[in-house]
Sequence to fold (332 residues):
Amino acid sequence: MKRRTKQQWLKYLKYLTFSLITGILAIALTNCIPESSSPLRIATNLWPGYETLYLAEDLGYYHNQPLKLIDYPSGTEEVKAYRNGEIEGAGLSIDQALLIASTQNNVKIITIMDASHGADVILGRPEITNIKALKGKRVGLEPTALGSFFIARALEKNGMSVKDIEIVSLEPLEHERAYKQRQVDAVVTFGPAVPKILEAGAKVLFDSSQIPGEILDVIVVNTEAIANSPQTLQALVNGRFRALKYLEENPQAAAIKIAKRTGVTPDAMLNAFKGMNQFNLEENQKLFNPNDPTFVNGLKKLMNIMLEKKLLPQALDLTKILDDQFIKNAKL
Fold:
């Protein structure tokens, strides 16, 4: 074997040193590259429970984050956008999350936003005194699994079925107009439409407080976003819980900020929040804890009801659609 000269050894050592430095710099530069060149697109709809996301944005909690919150007119439109790859995540009712998960294996629930406790309502004309009086009447509702589930549960609790009423398909933005123009006798609705329809003389016939824990709202994201943008998703979750804390400690100031975006009065916004339980970080950590079956058992109950009413094509392994990493690592 030919031996290297002293000059050759020095040249070889310089080459090794250069290679080592180049490798270290490459790793350092890789770590400095942003997670994604495009903003993470998270969709929401008119549901009040999602307003803490926009409040977090208003308070600057998402400053310099590649994050874009997008308003959609309904959860139905969000589901379409998710399936078409137009968004990476969405605020959805739990039934819509299950519906997506039944046809796509790339969806994960990363946080629970709220449980409706009176915020989802069935409003009827003044002369309609109860759910039983809806027999043969026109009932408007959003054409989603949630709309179908909610009216079915209300009728079921009163010894009726959907065969006893005439269903009129209406998107949420049409609820107020349809009621005022007497196109429907009652409407299954939520959000900003509720106070406006009540002002028009409607009466509450049924609300979600009568089926506690059955209507949840969650944030779902695709697995690609989890892999490519974990820091941004963590910022989304952290900001939401910080905003919820701000709302709890400064309700009037928060309501004024939210009212500017939603177009309703601060008092109406605060009343809307009374109709739901917004889950804080501690509550989320408890519900996502694999040793506490409360959340999964609740999902199983809803899934079985949806399967029974043919609102879900197939049963799911519910543990596989939950991702607790962002809840575990969340900080206020």
Observations:
- The chain has a mean pLDDT of 89.
- The chain has 14 helices and eleven strands.
